[in-house]
From TrEMBL:
Gene3D superfamilies: Alpha-glucuronidase, C-terminal domain (3.90.1330.10), Chitobiase/beta-hexosaminidase domain 2-like (3.30.379.10), Glycosidases (3.20.20.80). Keywords: Hydrolase, Signal. GO terms for molecular function: alpha-glucuronidase activity; xylan alpha-1,2-glucuronosidase activity. This is Alpha-glucuronidase. The keyword Hydrolase applies. It comes from Duncaniella freteri. Coiled coil: none annotated. One of its GO terms (cellular component) is extracellular region. Residues 119-397 form the Glycosyl hydrolase family 67 catalytic domain. GO terms for biological process: xylan catabolic process.
Length: 674
């Protein structure tokens, strides 16, 4: 191909994408079910794509993706020495575009990056882009059970069809791997952290191998969660004591067996001595002793242990302090291939939490953060909550460079659109993009996702992106504003039950433990005169959070028990501010409905209607939250619901009697809806 023709084709590709040719005129859009995610580029099959060198399955995929999707001039892929195996450079020279990397994974990521630039209308004149991932470990954690259910999964059943494997290997495994690779996710923990020991039986390991074989060409490593008592349950040993020689040997043999099947196996994720799971503390051993025993078995093969710090034994009356109290004294005691995996906040994936102080107090221990994509506490797959702003908020406190990796509890299932809500896909997408480059803004990522998933017309992208960016804050406002947390219903984490009392239940599983509303005020006093959780933060934050007059209002009721009449920055009393925040959350949910309705000309009618009906549920749920919380808290404040806001439409008594009939693995069709 001559140079002019090549430049012409590049120019055509740029113009076409800038003009947003993937948006048809209103009325001409064919229905889509969302199964193609953000990878909707139509097959073109005309691109000249060259590679010279030893072919690998990943490079074959890179070539085929480019041949199918690239609409510009020739592209050459080249392996070169030096640099990270996942890093890449894309640049243009007189022969067209070149992608170079030291590894085949890097070439694959480079191919997806080039396609993303094309499909989002990026400026590709004089292209010269060098990219390297911020974290080595960019892993999805699936809480999938052997019976096909998913703990806190709201998008159908598990992707993994354990009953059919290894004989039948579903095509969705590759589609899943492809989606991950396209955003740079390089690992998947296949099973629930509440792990069944049976994952380690020979029969099941062969199934794990079958999945690993599908994920590998896309650069996605396979990991599994293991149950600490496996030597007893699977190996019939009398103990699982990590210092017992027989136990160590059992794990070593098991690990050897795994690597015999899966030579590039990633390692184990472990939830130990947490919520009833077995662990080293059952034998008087520490978390470090438990983790290091597994690490020794894995180290010879280059495997790692991701050891979760999600523990809350009653070492202190404040649950928010317990993980730090248990793990901080172990700082420096973990083997080099152990990474302590810490949830972003000190409690449990609430709509808003301050960061977990373990991130700044573990100075000699590799750590990784665990985020939750599945919306266990943010309206399941019914509510639109774009989570990138939540993750960015975390990175404002915990620099990515201080972390080894990032894990996301997956929101995928076997629903046709993967995530239950079309906009749930944006969290999967954003997780991958931010794990690669946490410096991207939430808006940049939302825009990329919208352009590829729906349409690039700015009349669509600008308002819908605005809605996404405001969505998480709206959820905070209508569920738990000003630092309130964990006031969910007992049987599920979907709707409000701030009044919930269950005789004999752990106090720290009940909403009243968290909101502490009484006649004087509301909120959990974690200041120095309260539980003193503030002291777990560095001095400057300890002072900031510990003083009611300087504490950021978004964390106010997290750190303080505040009188109802307390003057807020707005000039309102705390009670009035609470009323206004709840009301604002409701009006935001309603505004999102308007934004979406106006987007109708740009979206196929199937996906338009799907999202429209979810937004209706979200608005109704927002009113439910507002009416329930405000009327219940009014019984303590003794104050009327601020007159400037919408009046309650539900009776407190009705809401208190209402029980949503769902299990933890279902997404309800609606909430309280009288
Ligand atoms: C996998 C919360 C969830 C549990 C989850 C646990 C964890 O408690 O409600 O379903 O269990 O966190 O992260 O281990």
């Amino acid at each position: 191909m001559n140079r002019m023709k090549c430049l012409y084709l590049i120019a055509f590709a740029i113009c076409a994408s800038v003009l947003g040719f993937n948006c048809a005129v209103a009325g001409e859009l064919a229905d889509e079910d969302g199964s193609r995610l953000w990878l909707r580029g139509d097959k073109y099959n005309g691109a000249e794509v060259l590679f010279r060198g030893s072919m690998t399955p990943s490079i074959e995929i890179a070539l085929s993706e480019l041949r199918g999707g690239w609409r510009g001039g020739p592209v050459r892929l080249e392996l070169k020495k030096g640099g990270g195996k996942e890093s890449f450079r894309i640049f243009s020279d007189k022969n067209g575009i070149k992608i170079t990397s030291a590894g085949d994974a890097g070439l694959l990521y480079g191919a997806y990056h080039l396609l993303r630039m094309q499909n989002t209308g990026a400026d590709m004149s004089n292209i010269d882009v060098s990219e390297m991932p911020a974290f080595d470990l960019r892993i999805l954690n699936h809480w999938d059970n052997p019976d096909g259910s998913i703990e806190r999964g709201y998008a159908g059943h598990s992707l993994w069809r354990w009953d059919e494997l290894p004989g039948v290997v579903a095509p969705r495994y590759r589609e899943y791997a492809r989606a991950n690779a396209s955003v740079g996710i390089n690992g998947a923990v296949l099973n629930n952290v509440n792990a069944s020991p049976t994952i380690l039986t020979k029969d099941n390991l062969v199934k794990v191998k079958a999945i690993a074989d599908e994920l590998r060409p896309y650069g996605v490593k396979t990991y599994i969660s293991v149950n600490f008592a496996s030597p007893m349950v699977v190996g019939c040993l009398p103990t699982a004591d990590p210092l017992d020689k027989g136990v160590g040997r059992w794990w070593k043999d098991k690990v050897d067996e795994i690597y015999g099947l899966i030579p590039d196996f990633g390692g184990f994720l472990v939830k130990a001595n947490s919520e009833g799971q077995p662990g080293p503390c059952d034998y008087g051993r520490t978390h470090a002793e438990g983790a290091n025993m597994l690490a020794a078995a894995l180290a010879r093969h280059g495997g790692i242990v991701m050891w979760r710090a999600f523990v809350y034994s009653a070492s202190d009356s404040d649950r928010a302090k317990q993980a730090s109290l248990e793990f901080q004294p172990l700082d420096g005691e973990f083997a080099p291939n152990v990474i302590v995996q810490i949830k972003n906040g000190p409690i449990d994936f609430q709509p808003r939490e301050p960061y977990s102080p373990l991130f700044t107090s573990l100075e000699h221990t590799p750590t990784m953060v665990e985020m939750q994509l599945t919306q266990e506490y943010l309206g399941f797959s019914n509510h639109l909550a774009y989570l990138a702003p939540l993750w960015k908020e975390f990175f404002d406190f915990v620099p990515p460079s201080s972390l080894k990796g990032i894990a996301g509890v997956a929101n995928t299932g076997d629903d046709v659109n993967w995530c239950g809500h079309h906009f749930g896909q944006s969290n999967w997408y954003a997780f991958g993009r931010m794990a690669w480059d946490p410096g991207l803004t939430s808006g940049e990522v939302a825009e990329e996702w919208l352009k590829q998933t729906f349409c690039s017309d700015s009349a669509f992208v600008t308002p819908v992106k605005g809605m996404m960016l405001d969505s998480r804050e709206a959820v905070v406002d209508y569920m738990m504003p000003l630092g309130l947390h964990h006031i969910f219903a007992w049987g599920h984490h979907y709707g409000p039950e701030p009044w919930c009392e269950v005789p004999g239940a752990r106090h720290d599983w009940l909403p009243s433990y968290y909101h502490r509303a009484d006649k004087q005020g509301i909120g959990f006093d974690r200041s120095v005169t309260g539980s003193n959780a503030v002291s777990q933060y560095p001095d400057s934050l300890c002072r900031l959070y510990g003083d009611v007059s300087t504490c950021p209002e978004e964390y106010l009721l997290w750190f303080h028990h505040v009188p109802w009449g307390h003057k807020m920055r707005s000039g309102r009393t705390l009670w009035d501010e609470l009323c206004h925040r709840y009301d604002h959350g409701v009006s935001e949910a309603r505004r999102f409905q308007c934004v979406w309705d106006m987007a109708e000309p740009y979206v196929d009618s199937r996906r338009f209607r799907d999202v429209q009906s979810k937004l209706r549920i979200q608005s109704r749920d927002a009113v439910w939250w507002k009416d329930a919380c405000l009327q219940y808290f009014a019984t303590f404040s003794g104050m009327p619901i601020s007159y400037g806001i919408e009046r309650p439409v539900h009776d407190l008594d009705d809401m208190m009697k209402f029980k949503l009939d769902i299990t933890n693995e279902e997404c309800p069709e609606s909430g309280f809806n009288k």
